Amino acid sequence: MKKLLVVLAAVAMLFAMSSCSKECKCKTYVDGDLKGEKTFLKEDIESAGYEKCSDLNSSIELLGVKTEVKCK
To answer: CA angle, 45 as apex, 52 and 26 as ends, to 5°?
Structure first.
């Protein structure tokens, strides 16, 4: 019974790891127009203190110009 539990746990762990992307893809928009794209490794983001890609999302409006960063 213990062997079956260990095997099931290992399969679940592999499934969980395979479904996660190891990269964050961020796009920068100025007034709704795409201006650039950048890809970051998740390990770099985590070492900077963020937990997930969406933590990098931001939006600011200055002098009537809206700038957004959207990450997935």
So the answer is: 75
In angstroms, the CA 10 to CA 4 distance is 10
Q: Tell me if 44 sits within 8 A of 33, measured CB to CB.
A: no
pLDDT tens across 14-37, in order?
444 444 669 999 999 999 999 999
pTM over 0.70: no
What residues does each domain of the chain span? 21-71
Within 8 A by CB and 6+ apart from 67, the residues are: 28, 29, 30, 59, 60, 61
**Measured CA angle at 28 (ends 58, 21), to 5 deg:** 80
CA distances from 64 to 60, 61, 69 (A): 10, 6, 17
